[in-house]
Amino acid sequence: KKCEGLQKEFEGVYDVKITPMTDTAAAIRQSTLVVTQTTTEKSFVTADLVKKGSTLITMASNEIELGVLRAADQIFVDYWKQMITNKGKGVTLLHEAGELNHEDVVEMHQLTRGLHPGRKSEDETLVCCSMGLAALDIMIANRLYKKAKEMGIGQKLKLWDNPLWV
Q: Which CA distances in Å does 56 have to 82, 100, 107, 152?
């Protein structure tokens, strides 16, 4: 029902086809863009499910088996030094095993600054492992705060009596 609601919400807004499905493996096999945002501890995305030329974005990286990273033509990460400190994550495991180094990945700032072209051909399979950056969270929170203030909505909360920064 949630998928059908999203389908209706985005129908005609974006130039994409949204098909609600209950079979995760079939959905991955058919998709050119797969975004996982789960709290799972068990991987469910295997390399054989990922279509050649697709893009896979994982927000936690527990969802993907190491074979997905090994089969990727390009691997993108938020920030290499942060990523390899996340014990048990795919990029970290491959790095610790000596299979993946900083030179083997593209950091997101390289894309945003025009230092890397991104996809180089239609048949490349791209994997982006994103853990998020606190600086981005702060920027988004600040923007939301200013917009709420501008709109005159929200509620001011008193979280402490004596903040450390005053």
A: 20, 18, 15, 39
